[in-house]
Amino acid sequence: MGNQKKNHKKNPVKGSGKKGNFKKSGHQEMKTFKKNIEPAGSSIQQSTGSSNSGNKSMSALQQKFAKKLEGARFRVINEKLYKTSGTDAFKDFQSDPSQFDIYHVGFREQAAQWPYNPLDGIINWIKNHHQKAIIADVGCGDARLASSVKNKVHSFDLVSKSKNVIACDMANLPLPDESVNIAVYCLALMGTNIPDFVREARRILKPSGILRIAEVRSRFEEEGNSIKLFRKFLKRAGFDLNVIEVPQNKMFFELECVKANRESVIDPNFAVKACVYKKR
Ligand code: SAH
């Protein structure tokens, strides 16, 4: 499936990429990006989006502080999403939906720095290979996927900013069993209860449907918390896996998980590190 090169072997290249794999400029971009996105506890520079900080009526100093404040609010919300359950995140965002906007200003600013955005790869994959598929975009953010393809797309997030997005917790999707061909989770497995999210993805997928995941590679880069364990967890959950290797992408890893006709055993204790952004 897909025209992207698939590789079932472990990625031979760690970190910023095998020497010679990138044109010089691409490699440099990658190094810059790697500084900006890291797992919890590491020290990374962060740049945030800003609406106030571009305000011409503010002095340079005021703009600097406004930008810092927005950055701080983005980081707090981001960390909270990684460190609470989906249920709690849903309650929290519903009680203060402005958090969604603050989060997405920061998220967009981060994404603008990436040499490759996995959502673009997913959009192309759908356009080229799955034009007829019914899709669930879970943790859809600004729902760019739905606006980029002709497919029927059900878009879900913690807050709905448009009539095409349904607000919910991804552990409880308002879709019938076996109702979609593809479930997309692009950088969206944020809560502490990933096992509940995966169980729900399996429930809504038709037989042989595809769970398409893109995640930040560095979330899995410690002993006892590896991509290998994530793959094992997904296999036991009842999926056959294809690892998607995108040559220009070393910061994210992507999986196509095909719903298999076998028993699903979901480890309730499976967890992944948060991905946080360090303040400047
Ligand atoms: N998939 C989009 C957005 C990624 S940001 C893209 O790639 O551009 C992750 C999104 O997941 C955020 O919009 C966040 O609100 C959402 N999210 C996090 N936890 C969620 C949950 N439990 N239920 C639904 N959406 C969730």
Tell me what you see in this structure.
- With 280 residues, this protein is of the alpha/beta class.
- It is 35% helix and 18% strand.
- It contains 8 helices and 9 strands.
- The strands form 2 sheets. Strands 4-3-2-5-6-8-7 form a 7-stranded mixed beta sheet, sandwiched between helices. The chain has a two-stranded antiparallel ribbon with strand order 1-9.
- Strand 7 and strand 8 (252-259) form a beta hairpin.
- Helix 2 (60-83) packs across helix 4.
- It is globular.
- Bound molecules: S-adenosyl-L-homocysteine (SAH).
How are the SSEs ordered, and which strands pair?
Blueprint: H1 24-36, E1 38-39, H2 60-83, H3 86-95, H4 98-111, H5 118-129, E2 135-138, H6 144-148, E3 153-157, E4 165-167, E5 180-186, H7 194-204, E6 205-216, H8 227-236, E7 239-244, E8 252-259, E9 275-276
Parallel strand pairs: 2-3, 2-5, 3-4, 5-6
Antiparallel strand pairs: 1-9, 6-8, 7-8
Helix pairs in contact: 2-4
The structure holds S-adenosyl-L-homocysteine.
Q: Report mean pLDDT, rounded to a whole number.
A: 82
Overall geometry: globular
Bound compounds: S-adenosyl-L-homocysteine
How many strand elements? 9
Can you give the helix content as a percent range? 25-40%
Largest sheet: 7 strands, mixed
Q: Taking strands numbered 1, 2, ... along the chain, how are they ordered across the largest sheet?
A: 4-3-2-5-6-8-7
Model regions low in confidence, pLDDT < 50 over at least 5 residues: 1-36, 38-51
Structural class: alpha/beta
**Quaternary arrangement of the chains shown?**
single chain
Helical segment tally? 8
Strand content: 15-25%
SSE string, helix = H, strand = E? HEHHHHEHEEEHEHEEE
Distance between the termini: 41 Å
Radius of gyration over all CA atoms, rounded: 19 Å
